[in-house]
User: What shape does this take?
Amino acid sequence: MRVTCTLTRLPRGNWSARHDSRDVGQVEAQGLTREEAIEKLKGEIRYRLELCPCTVETYQHIEISIVESPT
Assistant: This one.
């Protein structure tokens, strides 16, 4: 599954990753590095998609397309 996120460098040097879609909803994660923010975002998206135990999807292969946000 491929999702698009917006990556923003915050004023104190942290990073914010955001995603918004009808399937997942609005998700935001922050981290000390860009990689940490992206991994946290993936985890949150995976959690939301797997929330319904009636599906057999595991969503282990979530691919993030990054759009850099101008600061």
User: Anything to note?
Assistant: The beta strands are 2-9, 15-21, 25-31, 63-68. The mean pLDDT is 84. The two ends are 28 Å apart (CA to CA). The CA atoms of residues 27 and 53 lie 20 Å apart.
